[in-house]
Amino acid sequence: MKRALVRYRNSRFRHFVLKHQKYALILFFIGGFLFDWLTLTRIDRLYDLIVLCSHMISLSVTLYLFNLAEDGKWNGTLLGKYETYLPLAIQFFFGALSSAYVVYFSRTVSLSKTAIFFILLLVMLLANEMLKQRMSNKYLQFGVYSFLSFTFFSFIIPVFISEMNSMVFVLSGLASLVCTLTLVTVTYLSSQSTRNEVRGYKLYGLVLGVYLLVYAFYFLKIIPPVPLALDCGIVAHHVSVSSDKYMVTFERDEWYKFWRINRIKYVHEDGRPIYFFSSVFAPTSLEKSIMHRWLWYNEISEEWDVVDNIPFEIVGGRDGGYRGYTYKENVKTGRWKVQVLTDDELLIGVVDFEVVVDDQLKPSRLVERAF
């Protein structure tokens, strides 16, 4: 055993980590991010649930061990021989849990809804540069942990209870807050170095600030109502149902606009309705009322006028998302958008388009696709 420990202390990998720790931290964050990006698929799959729960538990334990290591609590123990790698493990779990949100919502057609999270990820990466500054280290650790813990619970609890609404989101946040404050309190009371480096009221204030910020993002509709996601939203010329398949006829966009499935400039033929088809991902057994809100931009008032609200039910579990469509007749020319909302008016996604009426124009590149 002693020979193994001596070999470890003299290993090239350990010396490399110690010499390039700042860059290793970033690489392990990216490694964790890529691990979940390549392995996770849907939040209600058993593998995904096991991986996410393992990440969250491992991160909590590793954070505690790392902060006590600076007090010399693990000196002379087997754990003390490997404490060099604790910061790398923390960064790996930070990256992995961050990736989960992006994996589950990269499928949405409303990428603007997840843009705020990509910005926060960028901030995390830049913040890694501050890990050498000990006064910033603790605040960064528990600030990022607070955010990822909230994200984790907001995914997991709706899946376990098969229910999703604003109250469930609030309760998910409270459950996360209790867990986070427990970890912070136990670490703060157990670690003299932590008490020397940070002020308790600032640390608790940071945690509470993160939770209030996420709540604000949610109720201002800046982030989507997890774990629901808009898989597909298409403005179509015709929709029909045949043998449990939705046959959607729409106009393809130009080939170089690969990020869009259909053309947003809708050539309307007089006397025919405009259809909107959507597919919403929901975890297994989660039942939810969904609504299509049709809005038209009034150039005189410079405001969006609500034209119609049309609800329908979905039941979660289908890999391709749960489907539905609505349509409007006698539409006006101009800018339109259809919002896909929950029954408590939380925004899942939105699709913008423009209606053009011109006798000289006809829809081209029409295709029919089964969903």
Describe the structure.
The chain is an alpha+beta fold. The protein has 2 domains: 2-219, no CATH class; 229-370, Immunoglobulin-like (Sandwich), CATH 2.60.40. Helices cover 46% and strands 23% of the residues. It has 10 helices and 11 strands. The protein has helices spanning 2-9, 12-19, 21-39, 46-69, 86-105, 115-127, 134-161, 166-190, 192-197, 200-219, and strands spanning 229-236, 238-242, 245-251, 265-267, 274-281, 287-298, 303-315, 322-328, 334-342, 347-356, 366-370. It has a 5-stranded mixed sheet with strand order 4-10-9-6-7, with no helix packed on it. The protein has a 3-stranded antiparallel sheet with strand order 1-5-8, with no helix packed on it. α4 (46-69) packs antiparallel against α5 (86-105), α5 packs across α7 (134-161) and α7 crosses α10 (200-219). Residues 1-8 and 132-136 have low confidence and may be disordered.
Topology (elements, then pairings):
Blueprint: H1 2-9, H2 12-19, H3 21-39, H4 46-69, H5 86-105, H6 115-127, H7 134-161, H8 166-190, H9 192-197, H10 200-219, E1 229-236, E2 238-242, E3 245-251, E4 265-267, E5 274-281, E6 287-298, E7 303-315, E8 322-328, E9 334-342, E10 347-356, E11 366-370
Parallel strand pairs: 4-10
Antiparallel strand pairs: 1-5, 2-3, 3-11, 5-8, 6-7, 6-9, 9-10
